[in-house]
Amino acid sequence: MDRRNFLTAASGTTASVVVPFVGAPPQVGTSDVIRLRQGLDALMEDDRARGGHEGLELAALAGAEEALDKQKQGATQRIRLRLFSVAADYTATAAWSAIDARKTDRASELLNRALYLAGMGKDSVAEMRVWNSYAMLAHHRDEYAEAVDAAYAAQGTAVARRAPVFASLAHARTAVGHSNLGDRQAALRSLGRAQDALGKADTSEPTPSWVAFYGPSELLAMTAIVRDRIGDSAEAEAASHRALSGIPKRFKRNRALATARLALCQVHQRDIDQGCASASEVFTLMSGHPIPGRMRSLRGDFYRDLITLAPDAPVAREWIDRHRVEWSRPR
């Protein structure tokens, strides 16, 4: 499917994916599943550039609705399971958009629905995706023990047990949870397991578009989070630099997040000038797009740490003035 036909601009948001049938609905089969999967791929491309936003959530929910409508149209059992799976992925995409936009209650509701649909579709990949998102949601709610529990649930899915790339992501998410709880040894142990698993992954094996972001560079970005949280800011800065050297340019939102993390690591080492320079780069990376709620929150963390550690530094005052202007940009 041509992405331009799938994502059309409508007041700056992503348009609905549902195209109504004229006359009797056609036979539902593999081609419908493939078309819907292509729609998911297009949505993930939009997410990589812009991050979570209302248009993305609405388009994903429309895709889930279409998949479920087709599931009722007399398809074979095999196709029906695949359509439940597609609906689960679309709903998980909507939930992820809500997480990125920091709409946590909405995200929780959608994840519950996505987990149900993944079960109906007997899809352990979608199930693992949902548990990964649950861990992130708990993290943003400061529910760190729940984040660890969700990450362990992701580790326990069938796909994580058989596919190293999914196991690695689950272990990395567990490491972040342990670091938030201040458990240094558990965090480093989980990081080691994530690295070991990723080293066993077959890079030629196809993966769903939602997990395309994850690889050595993203693991380094997550390593930077863990290291900074456990007090190893110098190691965190080094990991951030290595991550940024490898995150593809099309992953604009992920690059901006890694840059914001780099700025935090630098300020935590009292390198105020460099930290402010890195934090300003985030504005440049996201130029032309509203800043997602998750990134706004991270930028707020930088602001608070900056005024705590260097309230009178001229470069800090300059950055704070710019922050106030940028903060007023549309969400």
Keywords:
72% helix; 1% strand; 2 strands; disordered N terminus; mainly alpha; globular; Serine Threonine Protein Phosphatase 5, Tetratricopeptide repeat; 331 residues; single chain; two-stranded antiparallel ribbon
The residue fraction in helices comes out at: over 70%
> Count the helices. How many?
16
Radius of gyration, CA atoms, in whole angstroms: 20 Å
Q: What is the strand arrangement across the widest sheet? A: 1-2
Structural class category:
mainly alpha
Walk me through the topology:
Layout: H1 3-6, E1 9-10, E2 13-14, H2 30-50, H3 54-71, H4 77-100, H5 104-120, H6 124-140, H7 144-155, H8 158-162, H9 164-180, H10 184-199, H11 216-229, H12 233-244, H13 252-268, H14 272-285, H15 293-309, H16 314-327
Antiparallel strand pairs: 1-2
Explain briefly what this protein structure is.
This protein has 331 residues and is mainly α.
Write a structural description.
- The chain is mainly alpha-helical.
- It folds into three domains: 122 residues; 80 residues, Serine Threonine Protein Phosphatase 5, Tetratricopeptide repeat, CATH 1.25.40; 105 residues.
- The protein has 16 helices and two strands.
- It has a two-stranded antiparallel ribbon.
- The longest helix is centred in the first third of the chain and has 24 residues.
- The radius of gyration is 20 Å and the shape is globular.
